[in-house]
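Researcher: Next entry in the queue.
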Amino acid sequence: MAPAGEGGISREIEQRARALGEALTADPRVERYRKARQAVREREATRIMLRDLRSREAELWRRRAAGEQVSPEEWDRLRQLAQVVGYNPYVRELWEAEEEMAQLLAQVMAVVQEAAGLAEGEEEEPEPGEAGGQASQAPSGAGGGASPSAAAGTDAQGRRAPAAAAPGSGGPLHVARTKLWVPGRP
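Model: Structure for this entry, 186 residues:
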């Protein structure tokens, strides 16, 4: 296998990843996601509504990351806006398709990790209080509009729920994450 360049991946890994991506195009969840995304793009009012929601969410996350206090009322207003946006059938379809894609990609990542000998549970987790072992109470999510869906909470099983279910759940808005651990994030 060719060595990776500075911070890059080897040619072999890139080729295999592209082949995996091409294989994923045959999955009906990928097609559903593409169609839902296209339906939103074709409807200007829907696109603007979703863009504004994601922009507001990104702003709250940016402020929080900068150390500013974001009030519970601001999170509630975002949750209420997400509920209203979630009434749009095209947005709702996109969020559901995004959820399916997130689950698919998490399953693919788990298979890749297992094949590489990096599967969860192979290393001991640090005990609470040890370095890296304290769980943060910070909500999960992504700023900058990178979130798969800016407006979704999680249900009791950890699955992302449509925005209509988010209000009243208390606390900041939660979005689905992959199981990939990123330093500095819980």
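Model: The mean pLDDT is 75.
Researcher: Noted, moving on.
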